[in-house]
Automatic annotation (TrEMBL):
The organism's taxonomic lineage, starting at the top: Eukaryota, Viridiplantae, Streptophyta, Embryophyta, Tracheophyta
Transmembrane segments: 380-398, 410-430, 451-477, 483-507, 514-537, 606-624
Keyword entries, A-Z: ATP-binding, Membrane, Nucleotide-binding, Transmembrane, Transmembrane helix, Transport
Domain ABC transporter: start-end pairs: 37-281
Highest taxon in the source lineage: Eukaryota
InterPro entries per the UniProt record, alphabetical: AAA+_ATPase (IPR003593), ABC2_TM (IPR013525), ABC_transporter-like_ATP-bd (IPR003439), ABC_transporter-like_CS (IPR017871), P-loop_NTPase (IPR027417), Plant_ABCG (IPR052215)
Name of the protein in its database record: ABC transporter G family member 11-like
Pfam (any one): ABC2_membrane
């Protein structure tokens, strides 16, 4: 504690000295590419059905400087995460923001890559080991000019610095598979964001889940990095131990969205003491402040000598006292000074080029898809079982007149009901998209690289799922003999699976709640299936909506018609059910029974299906980009 006091006194003197010489000296000392973040009279409100409009943040003013760590503290629900989100430009659409947030004295969007945000919930690819997760991230974030060996070394050094060397080859874990502890996951998330040394770093509860020693080492490392690299760090912290508290430069103490204190962390003790709330000896100052301003429990504050105050009274007193204090004046003076900075536009740092991003993301996504049983492996097993069932139900269908209907039903089942099962991979898509969103917001790579990586990495799995189960059904049933017919059948099945996956990716990007996504995805496909021309023949479909435009938009039409042409063209079926038996040729069946459009070949249907795959993937990219623009400041 003695050292703590000495440290505090030293910092206090520094604060006062800095304060007076701020205008002339500090600006000269500014690392030319550092980020000064200021906010003035910042209000955030949210509209709720129950309470109408509610203020979450009430007129906050403050600043964060390069080389320093600003800690946002306060009881649970006081608005720490909301302040971080507002400063990072990530408030959700239900909230409204008022006030001025400036970067280097300018109102500007943070270029992707200049800032990073470690959110409260760790979003990591759970199938990777710590080494893989950090190394892939290093490959994506660090420029191509750095060699692979150096990137590997940087990744491993960062892992050691975060105290994760013992778990370096442990799988991160999640989705029911045990792996790292929550504190270790926290450190992996921080480690990944520190790789590129962002100029501005937001950390939401960086020490949650960590024991006291780990909290100290992690925060110490963060403080050292901010000093060495001129990084501006803003961290919300719940309950720092005293050693961690001593590391912090500035403190923003909030209660119910109001500022209780903003200034050097070591001067907070004096502020509380002056107001009659002296921190008892041997007590962690952070614990003391939080106990004074926690309104969640109905307990009065004991001021000694039998005097008591309600927490609400303490908060009101501290808020008033801060507003009229010299520290508040100093904060406002600094904010005003920093407003005059007129620094440059934030610039995007160097990172891997788009080709490297595509390659790395393809490899990472391939490994994830291979290891995540729910993605494709389970589906392959189920498809084999289903195709065996189909093969036995329609076994050796033959070429009787009755086989016409059996073949038609089987092809419809393959093109629609078999492919709809791709929605089983939806939870994995949602997890992938969560990681993508988080990494993308932190500027790790381009959205197009993610779409390319995801498409290429899924292709071999989908080809395997189409070929093996498809072959089982094809040969057990005895469909149209010939390699071209068989290959066409597999290609249509593959295209349909790609389409369903793309559709589900679009749904996942709009609707991240996976239960709602599953229902919506299945619903859309059910409707498209109905209009495909099997359940109701094309000429019998109601013209409005079902025929125009849905029949032409739904991929089922092209899949059914392509498969029917592939199956029936060139075959003849004896009609042994009518007197004076005759044979009926495939073309007649297509035209008269299935009402297939015969003006173009089956290859056109296949080309349309692959064209749709490209269109759906581009649509997915567009929805992702639109979603991104909504959160930019
Ligand atoms: N979109 C929203 N709609 C309704 N209320 C909201 C919304 N966002 C935040 N709030 C409310 O605003 C208050 C502050 O929330 P915030 O998450 O910023 O608190 P916090 O200090 O970070 O809490 P914790 O330490 O528990 O994470 C809470 O009461 C929360 O319920």
């Amino acid at each position: 504690m003695a050292s703590s006091v000495a440290h505090c006194e030293e910092k206090n003197t520094k604060f006062e000295t800095c304060g007076s010489s701020f205008d002339s000296e500090t600006l000269d000392l500014v690392p030319c590419n550092g980020v000064y973040l200021t906010w003035k009279d910042l209000w955030v409100t949210v509209s709720t059905r129950k309470d109408g409009t509610k203020s979450i943040l009430e007129g906050l003013t403050g600043y964060a400087c390069p080389g320093e760590v600003l800690a946002i503290m306060g009881p649970s629900g006081c608005g720490k995460s909301t302040l971080l989100d507002a400063l990072a430009g990530r408030l959700n659409s239900r909230t409204r923001q008022k006030g001025e947030i400036l970067i280097n004295g300018r109102k500007q969007n943070l270029a992707y890559g200049t800032s990073a945000y470690v959110t409260q919930n760790d979003t990591l690819i759970w199938t990777l080991t710590v080494r893989e997760a950090v190394y892939y991230s290093a490959q994506l974030q660090l420029p191509t000019t750095i060699s692979q060996t150096e990137k590997r070394e940087i990744a491993e050094r960062s892992i050691r610095e975060m105290g994760l060397h013992d778990s370096i080859d442990t799988t991160i874990g999640g989705l029911g598979c045990k792996g790292l502890s929550s504190g270790q996951k926290r450190r992996v998330s921080i480690c990944i964001e520190l790789l590129r040394r962002p100029k501005l770093l937001f950390l939401d509860e960086p020490t949650s889940g960590l024991d006291s020693a780990a909290s100290y080492f992690v925060m110490n490392r963060i403080v050292k990095l901010s000093r060495d690299h001129g990084m501006t760090i803003i961290a919300s912290i719940h309950q720092p131990i005293s050693e961690v508290f001593e590391l912090l430069h500035n403190l923003c103490l909030l209660s119910e969205g109001r500022t209780i204190y903003f200034g050097p962390s070591c001067a907070a003790n004096r502020f509380f003491a002056v107001n009659g709330f002296t921190c008892p000896a041997l007590q962690n100052p952070a614990d003391h402040y939080l106990r004074m301003i926690n309104t969640d429990f109905d307990e009065d504050i004991d001021l000694g000598s039998g005097r008591k105050m309600t927490t609400e009274e303490v908060i009101n007193l501290l808020v008033r006292s801060y507003r009229s204090s010299g520290i508040c004046e100093e904060t406002e003076r600094r904010v005003a000074e920093l407003h005059k900075l007129e620094g440059g536009q934030s610039e995007k740092g160097n990172q891997a080029n788009i080709a490297t991003q595509c390659l790395v993301l393809t490899e990472r996504s391939f490994i994830n898809m291979y290891r995540d049983q729910g993605y494709y492996r389970l589906r392959l097993g189920i498809y084999i079982a289903l195709c065996l069932s189909l093969g036995t139900v329609f076994y050796n269908v033959g070429s009787s007149y009755n086989s016409i209907h059996a073949r038609g039903s089987l092809l419809m089942f393959v093109a629609s009901l078999l492919t709809i099962m791709a929605i089983g991979g939806f939870p994995s898509f949602v997890e992938d998209l969560k990681v993508f969103r988080c990494e993308r917001l932190n500027g790790h790579y381009d959205a197009a690289a993610f779409v390319v990586g995801n498409t290429i990495s899924s292709t071999p799995f989908l080809l395997l799922i189409s070929t093996i189960p498809g072959a089982i059904t094809y040969y057990l049933v005895g469909l149209h003999p010939g390699y071209i017919q068989f290959s066409y059948f597999i290609l249509v099945l593959f295209a349909c699976m790609m389409l369903v996956e793309s559709l589900m990716m679009i749904v996942a990007s709009i609707m991240p709640n996976f239960l709602m996504g599953l229902i919506v995805g299945a619903g859309i496909q059910g409707i498209m299936m109905l209009s495909g021309g099997f359940f109701q023949l094309p000429n019998d479909l109601p013209k409005l909506f079902w025929k125009y435009p849905l029949y032409y938009i739904a991929f089922h039409k092209y899949a059914y018609q392509g498969l029917y042409k592939n199956e029936f063209e060139g075959l003849r079926f004896p009609n042994d059910q009518l007197e004076g038996a005759f044979t009926i040729d495939g073309e007649t069946i297509l035209r008269d029974i299935w009402q297939v459009e015969m003006g173009y070949s089956k290859w056109v249907d296949l080309a349309v299906l692959f064209g749709m795959v490209v269109f759906y993937r581009l649509l997915f990219l567009a929805t992702v980009k639109i979603g991104e623009n909504r959160v930019k400041r």
